[in-house]
Amino acid sequence: MADAVRRAVWDGSIPFKVMLDPSECRIFDKADPYYFQADRVAYLPFYLPRIYKFFENFLIDKAVATVENAWFEVDNAPLRWHWPIGLLYDFYTALDPTKTPTLPPTNHDRPGSPPLAADPEPGAAPVPWTITLRFASYPHDFLTTLTPTSTHDAFINSIKEADFSRNGTAKAVMSLSPSDTRELFASLQDHDYDRFWGVTDKLLNHSGITVKNIPIRIYNPETGQVIQGSVPTRQPGTIRGDAQTLGTALNSLVPIIFPSKRSVVLARPVMHGIVLPLSAPLLELMREAMYPDGFLHITLAMMNDDNDNSHSFVRLRASEGDVGAELPLEALVEELEWVML
């Protein structure tokens, strides 16, 4: 079952619609959009060469509009190229998985276009996700320059940071062979599940090292705030050394938003496009559902006084029973498979 959760996370994807910014297009009535399906665990620069090739003949000045100068935005906000795609989508759309996705109207000239959405709900995220490709006015105050090695370097640095956070030392990642280190990034680029986890399991199960903490980042789309924590695997101050759950961790890191360790009150914790159960043991959640960079990237979907619990059975399970109850892996797999687009 653990492998089923990992596989469901790995196979998650998001449909994209990329528009070329009109000011950079030599065609008066704008270029056609580019559609593609992106892996949630991947990074936007992985897809940039094919996107650039599609729009290349529409560019006004190819000498200026180069791959190195490319950047994406949505609603006038630059997209962080060093964030995993799944995190970008959950954060920038403020996705509420309990809402019905909003589909665009059917284009009857294109038989493969999606049908009209059935009664979309307010706050639902649209699919495909529409983003804009730009080259001019690179937001250097917000994004570092994208070079051929930028994505690799950012990813490996994150791997090292997560490893140090877990163990209090970077011994596990530093002891990887050069070929294993290269394989981490190459397998992610190639979207090769077996190769990636073949190396990652060496980090999570390194001889002589016991995982002490869980690296976690919490993102609030309403404020833009990012809270990073290194949460112990066991709850401090408990007589039996109770296992840390997602609920106890969130209550510790953001008590104002999560005053209860058992039930969601003000926000839903979202990762990989689903609402996570507060009862999930944090160590197990990390081992089976972390992002490839080693972090649990959790976005907050604010509830806006919505007290309807009927839409998400995972959310319902979060408020049932003991805080330390085991993560219902079957439910998590089912929810992940349901939300895959």
From TrEMBL:
Domain Autophagy protein ATG5 alpha-helical bundle region per the UniProt entry, residue ranges: 150-205
InterPro entries: Atg5, ATG5_HBR, Atg5_HR, ATG5_UblA, Atg5_UblA_dom_sf, ATG5_UblB
Recorded topology in the membrane: Peripheral membrane protein
Region (Disordered): 100-121
Segments forming domain Autophagy protein ATG5 UblA: 9-135
Annotated keywords: Autophagy, Isopeptide bond, Membrane, Transport, Ubl conjugation
GO terms of molecular function: Atg8-family ligase activity
GO terms of biological process kind: autophagy of mitochondrion; cellular response to nitrogen starvation; piecemeal microautophagy of the nucleus
Major localization class: membrane
Family to which this protein belongs: Belongs to the ATG5 family.
Full protein name: Autophagy protein 5
Gene that specifies this protein: ATG5_1
